[in-house]
Structure formats: C-alpha cells, structure tokens
Amino acid sequence: MKPKSFLLLVAAAGLAGKAAAGDADLAKQLSNPVASLISVPFQFNYDKGYGLADGGKLLLNIQPVIPFSINEDWNVISRTIVPVILQNDIAERSGSQFGLGDIVQSFFFSPKQPTAGGAIWGMGPAFLLPTGTDRLLGAEKWGLGPTGVLLKQEGPWTYGALGNHIWSVAGDSKRSDISSTFLQPFISYTTETAWTIGLDTESTYNWKGDQWSVPVNFTVSKLAVIGQQPVSFSVGARYWAAAPDNGPDGWGIRAGITFLFPK
C-alpha cells in the first residue's frame, strides 16, 4: 500500500461529514468483536522482507461480521476472514502469486448482556478452509479448533483479547500439519468525535515449527456518515517484533475501510 493511498483515505474521512451524537457509540462498537452490529471491513496490509530477495506481500482481508439472535439471551456472531493476496519473491525463485488464501470462519456464542462485572465474552468453533488458489497462498489443509474473546468497555476505553487454536484434520498429506495458536490482545480509545486510536498484536505461534510471528499494529480510525451509510476509515503502521525465518521484518503498512449496518 503506497503512502498516497493513505492520504486518500484520510482525505475521504475528512470530507465524509461531521460525527453525529451517536457516532462515537457506533465507533466504539467496532472495537467489540462480538457487538450486535453487522460490519464489512476491508483491511489492507503491506509487508516486506520475505526471503533472500526482500520479497513483499499485499494482503486484503475481507472480514464480514454478522450477528444472529438465537434467543432472548444469546447471540451467535459469524466472523469470516477472506484473504486476497498479491505476493512477490517470498521464497527463493518463487516469483509472483495472486489469488485467494485460506479462509478462516469463526462462530462466537455470546451473551447479549455483559456480566455483572461488565465483561463481554464469546466462544465457539473456528474452521480453516483450504481455499488457497496456489500452493504458496494456502496450506492445503482443513482445520478446526476453539476460539474465544474476552473484553471490557469502560468509558472511552476498550481492552481485551481474542484468540484461537487450529489443528489440521484433513487435506494434502504431503503438506505440513498445522497446530497454530493465534493471540490478539488489544486496547483502544474512542473520542466523542468518533476517532479511535488502537494498539494490538496479532501473534501466532506455530507449534510444529516452534516459531512466533508477532506484528504490533498501531491504527487511527474515523467514523463518518456518507449519505446514510456509516463508514469507518483507518490508517496505521505495524512492526514485526518477531517473525519466522525468511518471514517479514521491519515496518509494514495497514489501512482499512469498514461499512457498518446498524440495526
């Protein structure tokens, strides 16, 4: 993602309009992974430093979040991550690849009301679907495991953690088995004018390879209303505190656009 793209996103957020009284509350709901809010984020990431040729990867994550009410007390929240990848020289003589990566589908069963102490939580299954359109874009394995989230929202602050663990259960026997833990502690602050400043890590531990991947993400987002459509624009930077051998290193870029559909 080029710097010019970030400037365009910032300009779009500024031109979209002033925040209404309830926009800050709506922006704060975006910080809650199990909020009763339909949202469709498009998250762009660019990282470099792969392999001996300092290869790069442009990743677009399409991440629709759809809550369903199952009774008076419980919701089930569907969270899907659909990766679209353009990468170049991530391994020796690998060339370029463009296409779909492996989809991760999660379902969180979550109480509609916080606990007496104000905690918000959800848990359920996560599935790995071998949808990669190239051997270098996917693991060619089916996987499943548990996922969960725990957070609290106090005033303008939101803090908590999301995690999952996925084991491979079927797929190409010639490809490496998967046993991977994902941990995402996060904290954010939302202003009365619907700006949100966020900090998180998206740490992954590969138990088969005994390797950590730890990008630290800092983002700034702004919720605005274009016509009648609430939209959140975000820009930020990420730093790879740890990565596998021949993995990304140094600084990367993150930007996003999220469409919100309040009930």
TrEMBL record:
Organism: Mycoplana azooxidifex
Residues annotated as signal peptide: 1-21
Protein's UniProt name: Transporter
Annotated keywords: Signal
